[in-house]
Write a structure and sequence with these properties.
The complex is a heterodimer. By secondary structure, chain A is an all-alpha fold. Chain A contains 12 helices and no strands. Chain B is of the alpha/beta class. Classes of the chains: A mainly alpha, B alpha/beta. The complex binds adenosine-5'-triphosphate and magnesium ion. Magnesium ion (MG) binds next to helix 2 of chain B. The site of magnesium ion has 5 residues of chain B, from helix 2.
Chain lengths: ~280, ~325
C-alpha cells in the first residue's frame, strides 16, 4: 500500500512541479524539429527523382539518428528527474515526516522508483512512438523491430534510474548527478572506442570498450537497441553510433538487467540502514 | 450507518486506560555517535503512559537526536529503547505515534489539505475517515481558510501549524513534538498549549522538546534536564507538597513586622511596597503562612506559589559555558 502511495506522490510531484510537462514539451519540440527536417528532406529527394531504395534508406538513417537522440535525451532526463528525490529529501528533512509513518523504508524507495519508472516509460513511449509515426506518415518507414528496441532503451533508462537511486542514498544531489552522468559519459566514450577498435581490428581498444560496458552497460544497451531497430541492410553499411561493428553480446543485456536490480537492491538496503 | 457507541469513541479519540506499570517510553543507556562525535552519551529514561514529559537542555544537548532514535529515524550506536512496549522504530507501532519534526518541512507543492490527506493515507487511514478528520484538524490549528493554499506560500508559523495537525491525524497514543512553538505567534503558542492539554485529557503521552522554560513549566508533568546527551536530573512539576517554592503575595497593608513574622516558615523573605516574596522549603507551610498573614490583618489580593524555578536550574545546569 505504502509503495503505491509513494509512487503516486512521485508522479504528482513531477506533474505539479512542471518537470513532467517541461520534459514532454522538450520531447514534442524535438519531434517537431525532426518532422520538419524530414519533411524538407523528403521534398528535396522527391524533386530530384531519387532512386526508390535510397528514398527509403535516407529517412531510415534519419530515423536512427532521431532514435539515438531520443536515447540520450531519455537517459539524461531519467537522471535529472530523479537525482534529487532521495538525497534532496534527506538533506531538507522532508523525509522525516514520511519515514516515521507506518510504512517500511523499502516501500518509500520502491514507490518512488516505480513512480519515476512509470514516468520514463511513458516518456520513452511518447518519443519512440512519435518519431516512428512521423517517419511512417512522411516516408512509409518505421524502425525494424520497435518493441525490442523500445525494451532495450527502456532497460537503459531503468538502469540509470536505479543507479541514481543508489548514489542518492549515499551522496548529495550534485555529487549524485555528477557520478551518474559521468558513468553515462564513460559508457558513451567506451562504446566509440570499442567500435573504432573493431573497425581497425585493434583488440585492446575493443577490450577497453568492453570494460567500460561492464562498468556501465548503458551504451551497450543502446547498440543492441539500434541493431534491432535498423534495417538489416543499413546495419552492414556504415560505421556509426548504430553500427554493429562490435555488437555487444546478449549476455550484456542480461548483465545490465541484473546490474539495475542489484543497484536498486543496494539503494533500498542503504536507505533502510542510514540515519535520516 | 454509525452506531451510537462507535461515534462516541471516534469523536473522543479516547485512549483505553493502561496498567500503571505500562511505560510509553523506556530507554537504557541509549547512545549515538556521529562520525566520532558523541551526540547522545547515555540516555536512560522512563516515561509512563499519559504523562506530558519535557526535554530541556541547551542547543546541541542531543534532544532531537534522542527523539529521532525513539522514532527509528536514527539508529542508536548502543543501548535499548522501547516505545509503547515495542522496540523503537517498529513499523507497526508507528501507527500509534505522531511526530512533529524540529524543522517541519514537507512537499511544498501540496496544499495543506492535500498534505494532511497524504499523511493520513500513509497512516493507513481510509478516505472516508480523512474526509472528516482533515477539515477538523485544519480548523483546530486555525488553517481552515487556507485548506487550498500551497505550502510553499505558507509562513513559518503556518507551516508549524500544519505540521502539528499532521502529528495528530491518527489520534496518536504517543506524540513527539520537537520545539512545537518555534516560529509561532502568541496565539499559536497558546494553541500548542491547548492542544497538549487536550491530548493529556485523551490519555495520550506527549514528549516535548523545548527551550521555552515558561512553556514547559505550564504544560509538562515532568521534565528531564539534558546536557551532553545525558539526563542530569528529572523533576516532577506537579507535586504540590515537595520541594522549595517561591510565593508571591500582593496585599495592600503589608508591614515589616509581617515580613519578620513569616520568616519562621521561609528561607528568604523580601518585602517591597505591596509585594512580599518568600521562599518556603516545603509547600506544606503555605496554608499556615496565609492564615498568619490574614490574622495580622493583611488585605490580600494575590497569593501565588510560583512553580519551581526552572530557569534557575536550567542556567545552573547549562553553566557558564552555555552548553555548547
Ligand atoms: N546527522 C548528524 N551528523 C553529525 N552530527 C550530528 C547529526 N545530528 C546531530 N549531530 C550533532 O549531535 C549533537 C546533538 O544534536 P541535536 O540536534 O540532538 O541537539 P539538540 O539538543 O536537539 O539541539 P537544539 O536545541 O539546537 O535543537 C550536536 O552537536 C549536533 O551537531
Ligand atoms: Mg533539536
Amino acid at each position: 500500500m505504502g509503495t503505491w502511495i509513494m509512487a503516486g506522490v512521485t508522479f504528482r510531484e513531477a506533474a505539479r512541479k512542471k518537470i513532467l510537462w517541461m520534459a514532454i514539451a522538450a520531447g514534442l519540440a524535438f519531434l517537431a524539429l525532426f518532422g520538419t527536417g524530414l519533411h524538407y528532406q523528403m521534398k528535396d529527394l522527391a524533386a530530384r527523382g531519387m532512386n526508390p531504395i535510397l528514398l527509403k534508406q535516407i529517412p531510415g538513417t534519419m530515423l536512427m539518428v532521431g532514435l539515438y537522440a531520443i536515447d540520450l535525451l531519455t537517459v539524461v532526463m531519467t537522471v535529472l528527474v530523479s537525482v534529487d528525490t532521495l538525497s534532496g529529501e534527506i538533506a531538507s528533512g522532508t523525509i522525516q515526516a514520511v519515514a516515521t509513518k507506518p510504512l517500511p523504508r523499502w516501500q518509500i524507495v520502491l514507490g518512488k522508483w516505480l513512480g519515476f519508472a512509470a514516468m520514463m516509460t511513458a516518456y520513452l513511449a511518447l518519443l519512440v512512438g512519435g518519431i516512428n509515426l512521423i517517419t511512417y506518415a512522411m516516408a512509409r518507414v518505421t524502425a525494424h523491430n520497435v518493441p525490442q528496441g523500445f525494451a532495450l532503451m527502456w532497460l537503459e533508462s531503468v538502469l540509470l534510474l536505479s543507479i541514481t537511486f543508489f548514489f542518492g542514498t549515499h551522496y548529495s544531489t550534485l555529487t549524485n548527478g555528477v557520478l551518474a552522468l559521468g558513468l553515462v559519459g564513460l559508457a558513451f566514450l567506451g562504446g566509440w572506442i570499442e567500435q573504432i577498435g573493431a573497425v581497425t581490428s585493434t583488440t585492446s581498444a575493443v577490450n577497453v570498450g568492453i570494460v567500460a560496458s561492464i562498468i556501465m552497460p548503458s551504451e551497450a544497451l543502446w547498440r543492441r537497441a539500434a541493431n534491432s531497430m535498423q534495417s538489416p541492410l543499413a546495419s552492414v553499411l556504415n560505421f556509426s553510433p548504430f553500427s554493429s561493428a562490435s555488437l555487444p553480446s546478449s549476455t550484456m543485456v542480461v548483465y545490465a538487467g541484473v546490474y539495475a536490480a542489484v543497484a536498486l537492491f543496494f539503494a533500498i538496503r542503504s536507505f533502510s540502514r542510514r540515519d535520516l | 450507518m454509525m452506531q451510537a457507541g462507535e461515534s462516541a469513541s471516534t469523536t473522543a479519540g479516547q485512549i483505553a486506560a493502561q496498567p500503571a506499570a505500562d511505560l510509553a517510553i523506556a530507554t537504557r543507556g541509549l547512545r549515538k555517535v556521529f562520525d566520532g562525535k558523541v551526540a547522545v552519551r547515555s540516555l536512560t529514561l522512563e516515561v509512563p503512559r499519559g504523562e506530558i514529559f519535557g526535554f530541556l537542555g541547551p542547543n546541541g544537548a542531543g534532544k532531537s537526536t534522542s527523539l529521532k532514535m525513539l522514532l527509528g529515524l536514527v539508529a542508536p550506536t548502543r543501548g535499548q529503547a522501547t516505545v509503547l512496549g515495542h522496540p523503537a522504530g517498529d513499523v507497526g507501532t508507528r501507527r500509534k505515534i505522531g511526530f512533529l519534526p524540529e524543522h517541519f518541512r514537507f512537499y511544498d507543492w501540496l496544499t495543506s489539505a492535500e498534505l494532511l490527506r497524504l499523511h493520513g493515507r500513509l497512516y493507513g487511514m481510509s478516505h472516508a475517515s480523512l474526509r472528516q478528520k482533515v477539515p477538523e484538524l485544519l480548523d483546530l490549528v486555525g488553517l481552515a481558510e487556507h485548506a487550498g493554499k500551497r505550502l510553499r506560500d505558507f509562513s513559518k508559523g503556518m507551516l508549524q501549524r500544519i505540521g502539528l495537525a499532521q502529528a495528530l491525524l491518527n489520534d496518536p497514543e504517543l506524540i513527539f513534538l520537537d520545539e512545537p512553538t518555534s516560529g509561532l505567534d502568541p496565539a499559536g503558542r497558546r494553541l500548542v498549549r491547548d492542544i497538549i492539554k487536550a491530548q493529556r485529557q485523551r490519555g495520550a503521552t506527549v514528549l516535548l522538546n523545548s527551550h521555552l522554560l515558561s512553556e514547559v513549566e505550564i504544560t509538562c508533568d515532568r521534565v528531564a534536564f539534558i546536557k551532553h546527551g545525558e539526563v542530569i536530573e528529572t523533576r516532577d512539576l506537579n507535586s504540590l507538597l515537595e520541594g522549595q517554592t517561591t510565593v508571591l503575595v500582593r496585599a495592600s497593608n503589608l508591614t515589616p513586622e509581617m515580613a519578620a513574622g513569616v520568616e519562621k516558615w521561609a528561607s528568604s523573605v523580601a518585602l517591597q511596597d505591596h509585594q512580599l516574596t518568600l521562599a518556603v522549603p516545603s509547600r506544606e507551610a503555605l496554608p499556615e503562612v496565609l492564615r498568619y498573614l490574614i490574622s495580622r490583618g493583611a488585605e490580600i489580593y494575590e497569593f501565588t506559589p510560583q512553580r519551581l524555578s526552572l530557569e534557575e536550574r536550567f542556567l545552573q545546569i547549562v553553566g557558564s559555558e552555555g552548553g555548547l
